[in-house]
Write a structure and sequence with these properties.
Elements: E1 16-18, E2 29-34, H1 45-57, E3 66-70, H2 74-86, E4 89-95, H3 100-108, E5 112-116, H4 128-138, E6 142-143, H5 152-168, E7 175-179, H6 184-196, E8 201-207, E9 241-245, H7 247-261, H8 267-280, E10 288-293, H9 307-312, H10 324-330, E11 341-342, H11 347-357, E12 361-365, E13 375-380, H12 381-390, H13 399-402, E14 409-411, H14 416-423, E15 428-433, E16 436-442, H15 443-457
Parallel strand pairs: 2-10, 3-4, 3-6, 4-5, 7-8, 7-10, 8-9, 11-12, 14-15
Antiparallel strand pairs: 1-2, 12-13, 15-16
Helix pairs in contact: 1-2, 1-5, 5-6, 7-8
Length: about 450
Amino acid sequence: MKVLETFLDAMGNTPLVRLRSITRGLRPTILAKVEMLNPGGSVKDRIGIRMIEAAERDGTLRPGGTIVEPTSGNTGHGLAIAAAVRGYRCIFVMPDKMSQEKISLLRAYGAEVIITPTAVPRESPESYYSVASRLADEIPGAFQPNQYFNQENPATHFDTTGPEIWEQTDGRIDIFVAGVGTGGTITGVGRYLKAQRSDIVIVGADTEGSVYTGDEPRPYLTEGIGEDFMPETFDPDIVDRWVRVADREAFLTARAVTRQEGILVGGSCGSAVYAALEVARDYGDDTTIVVLLPDTGRNYLSKLYSDGWMRQYGFLEGPEVVTVEQVLSAKGAELPPLITVNAHDKVRQAVDVLQASSISQAPVVREESADVTQFVGSIRDRELLERVFRDPDALQADVAEVMAPPIPFVEWDQPIEIAFAQLEQAPAVLVAKAGQVLGVLTRSDLLDFIAHRRQTER
């Protein structure tokens, strides 16, 4: 039987795919290294297990230990898979610009996720780097792989990704293009390829607002590439040419790759492909370009693949987009933005909460917290009345015994059309931002917003 011992054994040997449609009019051959086909859906899977194995060998990580890492999501996924197989606890610290899909995916593996502000300097105690370092110091048995400084990062790509590309192209690669985040991928692959043939050109795709191409650090929306400092895992001498890519070009290119090539890619993939297309204009038919596509677009369905989100940031033309957050902000202040019932409360207490606030429904939480993972159900007065009318003793039952399914979530920055679609099926939605629930929207809230907005427009 052909059987893998663990899912980790599916790592690597990702294919090269010829790009045909998006490259029309360009003379070079452009091949995509499709890293989404790793177990966790990204190139970062490769370094996760290698950093863990190195820490196990030197005794830094012992059985029962905790892995703490600052991540934009993909490295966390790779570490989480390896940790699940090896039996480690994981805590990941992420900036709040990351997609909800990445946060939810990490939690699906059983990891704890802490969200920190994006718009703070690296040295701030609130930055995701600082928070991760503090947790690693405070938690007994904690290990921080630290992908920005861990030399296993570039070494992994020197040992695996680079040789794969060389073998798959029969050594006929002329140009390698990759986005630069920690710099580990382009450093490791670049070193290997240049060791085989020194005239291979290494091209780095950077984002506006990143220090790599000389910008003053400032916030940007593309996830996974660019930095506000120079990581030790990056060798700047390995890059022969830089292409700076704005958020708009990154996202529109990613959408084009998905729709024209059938490869669902993320925003940093869009940056890399855009850079490859720019470079290709300077070369002829006898040139082979390999561009590394680091991850899948499934992590960004609520962002760059949402027309409403793209219009909100001016990346797509179209009518003004009204977001869920605008509706929530327009609600009156008569009630708190979020009223919850604890799953361990008695039904009688839940009824009192509904009556005291003059509301007909409320979300049920496992513990008093705004974290989306704590929202486990809902109660509605109509169902409670039916239950209590038929069985008065149900008033003494725990809410957990009688609650309905959870109220659906919508993201704060999504257009109101998303909320409307949910409210056609459910009487209310929870509004979430960076894994935290901001409040509740009901059909009445949306109706009131639309009515008053139309009145104002007149």
